[in-house]
Design a protein that fits this description.
Chain lengths: 328, 288
């Protein structure tokens, strides 16, 4: 799971598009240091280019070009010139790879699996994160500083390391939780999805807690004070004032979780070394990886493109629904 | 907690106790695996299975175990650590500098296409990084550059999220009057940025650096796809290969455990010392 820190940014931008400084009067378009047509020159045009160029070049090289390349690759197919044992050449195949993607059972099964995974892990993860954040923000808790730190510690543990660690804790040989590991086969086909969900929740609950907590801290104190004056208890204040106020932050953590879940890779891959119940096509990204290893780059590229599209569609749908609810 | 009115209201001791107990239980959940790691990494191989996992037993072997791991296979583990520091440190630093410049330009200058540029960068935040790894591999292999440090380092130098954060921070913390004053004093735009803006944005830039550092340190997919030579591996990929070899070489089990502990210590220490930065960073992202 990577890039999870991105989602608040996106939602922030969706909600509040203009974050830039108050614009000085525009002088129209045109670029370059030479004031050939002073009337249409941008103020400090050269400086703007200088500031933006390094990022734009890197972004183009390592984001835009690869995306374009994946799309192009996905439109090609490999055929053998002169029979089965002939030389392999790439020829334009149109949507051949996409047809293969749509009829690929394991790929869609893996998407179904991560959706089930989402249902298992995310409501619990975000629910707990919300409860923790509300408690941190409420006057009833002692030692809030300690808890805030302690709950965030797992975020410093890379997903691969966390999965290795929990893998040991799940296996009966080394686990200190013998009662649990001997009565349940935590690595068996029935429970392994919960075991992986637990790893992911262990890592990210504290992180989401902090996002929600930051939003709680931004609520004007007068608001909760007024509710308290009106005789509302802490439960009532949390339910009627605080939770509606942090709904946008909750929405963001939701989008985050959608992106993260669809990208699930590290944890199940590591679990494969301790659980035979995790196949090489367990999650969509594992399908992509396995396909690239065959190697069938064209099909793998098509998988990547479809997966990115599914991610975008689900994220935007979620943002739309969440946005509407917070507006009304 | 900060408002005096809050502390003056007396809370029901029952809810105070209940809430605290609830949080203590979960603190146990979040910390127990790390505690287990510390305890287990301090044991001898014989004690590993023989004793209970949550408490020390036998001689305190942590220093010896650490020395064994560091010396194993010609110091391979140290190479992995160095690689991770290189990828995350250099990648994070370059990404931060480049993002700071771009964010500053987007916040403080008006030029045609500004919003379009910003929106494209923002869309980059949504692109799953794993979707990029495979095409990046193919592109790097076209120039015969896979299986090199640069294959992992270069793509790590881009942080669209960093640009987004830098733009907000620049807009909020660098006053236009200051820039105008610097211009009147004859400073060039670049000089104004490096001498004035960078200083004002410093706390924010630490946040950007931290996020990117963690993202690269935790990255697994890109090195997995790019690298074949184990001396180029970052720590995550290295430990994963050891972990998957345990069935053939059970001795590696203790090495994996000790190595896992060693690999998370730097990040936890960094997080503890730089708390105020990441907290403010999360605040900017999470608050509407």
């Amino acid at each position: 799971m990577t890039n999870r820190e991105g989602a608040p940014a996106v939602a922030h931008a969706v909600e509040q598009h203009e974050t830039g400084a108050a614009p000085p009067p525009s002088r129209g378009r045109g670029r370059g240091p030479v004031p050939v047509r002073p009337r249409r020159r941008v103020r400090h045009g050269r400086a703007v280019v200088g500031f933006l160029a390094p990022f734009v070049v890197l972004f183009a090289a390592f984001y835009l070009v690869p995306i374009g390349y994946a799309v192009v690759e996905s439109l090609y197919t490999v055929t053998r010139v002169g029979g089965t044992f002939g030389r392999a050449t790439e020829v334009f195949g149109g949507f051949v790879q996409y047809a293969a993607v749509f009829s690929n059972g394991p790929f869609w099964a893996s998407i179904g699996r991560v959706l089930v995974f989402f249902v298992i892990s995310i409501p619990l993860q975000l629910g707990l994160a919300l409860v923790f954040a509300l408690l941190l923000d409420s006057p009833v808790l002692r030692g809030a500083r300690f808890f805030r730190l302690a709950f965030f510690v797992p975020y410093a543990v890379p997903g691969v390391i966390a999965a290795i660690m929990w893998g040991f804790l799940y296996a009966p040989t080394l686990s200190p939780f013998t009662l649990l590991t001997t009565s349940f086969d935590l690595l068996g086909p029935d429970l392994v999805i919960f075991s992986i969900a637990n790893i992911v929740n262990w890592i990210f609950t504290g992180y989401n807690m902090l996002i929600i907590y930051a939003a709680l801290q931004a609520i004007p104190p007068e608001l909760t004070e007024a509710a308290r004056m009106d005789g509302a208890g802490q439960w009532r204040i949390a339910w009627s004032v605080k939770i509606p106020m942090v709904a946008p932050a909750l929405g963001l953590t939701g989008v985050f979780s959608i992106i993260g879940t669809l990208q699930l890779f590290n944890e199940p891959l590591v679990m494969r070394s301790v659980s035979s119940a995790v196949g090489s096509d367990y999650t969509p990204n594992m399908v992509v990886h396995a396909t690239a290893n065959i190697p069938n780059y064209n099909l793998a590229a098509a998988f990547s493109v479809v997966l990115a599209l599914v991610t975008c569609v689900l994220s935007f749908t979620f943002l739309k629904i969440a946005g509407r609810r917070t507006l009304s | 907690m900060t408002a005096p009115t809050r502390t003056s209201t007396r809370q029901n001791p029952l809810s105070v106790g209940g809430a605290t107990l609830f949080m203590i239980l979960f603190a146990g959940y979040f910390l127990a695996p790390v505690w287990w790691l510390v305890v287990t990494a301090s044991k001898t191989r014989a004690e590993l299975r023989a004793s209970h996992g949550l408490w020390f037993s036998g001689p305190f072997e942590l220093p010896g175990n650490v020395a064994d791991v560091l010396g194993f296979d010609g110091g391979l583990f140290l190479k992995w650590m160095a690689n991770s520091v290189l990828y995350a440190g250099v990648g994070g630093a370059v990404a931060t500098l480049v993002a700071a410049m771009a964010g500053y330009a987007l916040a403080k200058y008006v030029f045609p296409g500004r919003e379009a540029v910003f929106n494209v960068i923002l869309a980059g935040v949504l692109v799953p990084t794993t979707a990029l790894a495979l095409p990046l591999f193919l592109l790097f292999s076209e120039v015969d550059a896979t299986n090199t440090h640069l294959a992992v380092l270069l793509p790590s130098c881009v942080s669209p999220f960093g640009v987004y954060l830098a733009r907000i921070y620049a807009a909020a913390s660098v006053p236009d009057e200051l820039i105008e004053a610097a211009r009147l004093d004859g400073a060039s735009e670049m000089r104004t940025f490096f001498a004035i803006a960078v200083r004002l944005m410093a706390p924010a830039l630490v946040t950007v650096f931290l996020f990117q550092f963690v993202a690269i340190w935790n990255n697994f997919f890109l090195p997995l796809v790019m690298l074949q030579d184990s001396t180029l591996y970052p720590i995550t990929l290295g430990l994963h290969t050891w972990n998957s070899q345990i069935p053939h070489n059970p001795d590696l089990q203790l090495f994996v455990i000790v190595g896992a502990l060693l690999s998370i210590v730097p990040l936890i220490v960094a997080f503890l010392f730089l708390q105020r930065f990441w907290r403010s960073g999360l605040g900017v992202g999470g608050v509407k």
